[in-house]
Amino acid sequence: MVFATLKYELTDGIAAVTINRPEKNNAISMEMRGDFRALADELYANEAVRVVVFTGTGKTFCVGADVSTFETLIKTADHREGVKAFREKRRPRFEGR
Description:
Blueprint: E1 6-11, E2 14-19, H1 30-45, E3 51-56, H2 70-73, H3 77-87
Parallel strand pairs: 2-3
Antiparallel strand pairs: 1-2
């Protein structure tokens, strides 16, 4: 699978994942969040994966969240479910999970 914000290769049981947004110092955007979720599903399903190593492209590993994309987050059903579950002190039930 190809991801817009992540590079991934598997060699001898080692999954090398590279965060690839150097123009934003590898800040985690909403798009990258989706890529991480899809990649996690893929890695979990692949029995050849023994370990995952993360690295970043450019001069920084990752500066954290890209807050300029937060507006997109609060409009998602997953976010609303997460907030509701937190308030109700229960585990969230995310779409597709």
